[in-house]
Specification:
The chain is of the alpha+beta class and about 240 residues long. Helix 1 packs antiparallel against helix 2. The longest helix is centred in the first third of the chain and has 61 residues. The protein folds into 2 domains: about 100 residues; about 130 residues, Protein Transport Mog1p, Chain A (3-Layer(aba) Sandwich), CATH 3.40.1000.
C-alpha cells in the first residue's frame, strides 16, 4: 500500500506539471509563438502521466492478485489442519477401542464368542438358567433401557428356534427390498447376512447362524456401528 501512495503522489505532481505546461502552450499559441522546449515538456508530461497511471494500475492489480493468492493459501492451510485433526481424532478413537474384550455366551447355548471394543458395555437382559431366549445388548459407555425401538451397537439373541424359521421371518422385508440378504460364514459354518431397514427405527446389519438346535442372531441397529460390526463378526466362534 505505501508504494501505491507514492505512485499517486508522483501522478499528482506530474499531472500538475502537465496542466501548467498546457496553460503555457495555449498562451504561447494565442500569442502566435512556438516554443519547441514547451512542446517537448508537454510531450514528456503526457508520457509521465501515462507511465504513472500504468504503474498504479499494475501495482493495484498485483496487490489484488497477491491478496487473492494469500487468501487461497490460508484456506488451504486451514483445510489441511482440519483434515489432520479429523485423522488424529479417528486414530485416537480407534486406539481407545483397543485392546478388544471377549464376549462369551452360555455353554449350553453353544458358547458363542466374539471380540468387541473395550469402550463398550454389556447388559444381559435374559439369561437361560431356566431355558428360554438369551438376550445381550452392547453399546458404547452404557447400555440404554431395553426396548424394541432403541438403537444399540449390538444385539445378541440365541433362541430355541429352527434356523429356517428365523430366516423366513425376514422374507417379507427381503421381497419388499427393505432388506438385502447375502451368504456369510463363520467358524466353518454358513449363515445369512441381512442389511437394510429392519423397521422404521432400525437400519443396520445382522448375521444369523445355526448353533446346534438353536439360532443365534447378532445385529447392529445403526450405520454408525457398521465398521465395528464387521470387525466383530469376523471373530465369531461357537461350538457346533
Amino acid at each position: 500500500m505505501p508504494i501505491i501512495c507514492i505512485a499517486s503522489i508522483l501522478y499528482s505532481y506530474h499531472k500538475r506539471k502537465y496542466n501548467n505546461a498546457m496553460i503555457l502552450y495555449r498562451h504561447s499559441k494565442e500569442s502566435g509563438a512556438s516554443n519547441p522546449l514547451l512542446i517537448s515538456t508537454i510531450g514528456l508530461g503526457v508520457l509521465s502521466v501515462a507511465a504513472i497511471v500504468a504503474a498504479i494500475w499494475g501495482i493495484s492489480n498485483y496487490m489484488a492478485q497477491k491478496s487473492d493468492v494469500d487468501g487461497r493459501i490460508s484456506a488451504a492451510v486451514a483445510t489441511a489442519k482440519k483434515d489432520q485433526a479429523d485423522k488424529d481424532a479417528d486414530k485416537f478413537t480407534a486406539q481407545e477401542k483397543e485392546p478388544n474384550r471377549e464376549f462369551a455366551g452360555p455353554d449350553d447355548f453353544g458358547r458363542l464368542t466374539f471380540s468387541f471394543p473395550k469402550t463398550w458395555s454389556v447388559f444381559i437382559n435374559k439369561d437361560v438358567t431356566s431355558g428360554g431366549v438369551y438376550e445381550a445388548f452392547l453399546n458404547p459407555i452404557s447400555v440404554p433401557p431395553v426396548s424394541a425401538t432403541q438403537q444399540y451397537a449390538l444385539r445378541v439373541t440365541i433362541e430355541q428356534k429352527d434356523y429356517d424359521k428365523v430366516i423366513s421371518s425376514y422374507e417379507t422385508l427381503v421381497k419388499k427390498g427393505d432388506l438385502h440378504s447375502s451368504a456369510v460364514s463363520a467358524n466353518g459354518s454358513n449363515g445369512t447376512r441381512l442389511d437394510g431397514n429392519f423397521s422404521k427405527d432400525i437400519r443396520g446389519s445382522a448375521v444369523i447362524y445355526k448353533i446346534r438346535d438353536k439360532t443365534a442372531t447378532l445385529r447392529t441397529d445403526a450405520g454408525a456401528f457398521t465398521a465395528d460390526f464387521n470387525n466383530l463378526i469376523s471373530t465369531i466362534k461357537f461350538n457346533n
